[in-house]
Task: structure prediction
Amino acid sequence: MTNINIIDEIRAKLEENPHVHQPAEIAMSEREGDVTLRGSVGSFHERQAAVQVARSVPGVRRVEDQLMVDLRNRWDDDVIRGVALQALMSADNVPADRVDVKVDGGWLTLKGEVKHQYDSDAAFAAVQRVPGVGGITNEIKVITAGIDG
Result:
């Protein structure tokens, strides 16, 4: 595929994707299969969706994510924390009693200790769609010795 074809294909897929709300706000360039995405999106989840769309296009080797999350309809940090904790508690595969959430300026940080990497991954997956989140840092430690269950 040529440079223009790859960008056109990404643009078309972004337009079709229900998780990318303002695809026109995403600028992109391509060189030898390396795609750069720049601009603003409304949530962390939308950012991930845009990158995933770009990666799915034939001919794309690598995607450089320079997208910024613009929280125009900013949520209160305490509300985000409550929704995130509820998401953790509602997920069957998350040891919610071992994971805590801190939110500062819309940035969510997961903390705690779990027995397996898949527990940490499940916690991340449970909170990635929480509205109002500008980004997520996963500081959950995987400690296999000394944790019951």
User: Anything to note?
Assistant: Helices lie at 3-16, 44-55, 77-90, 117-127.
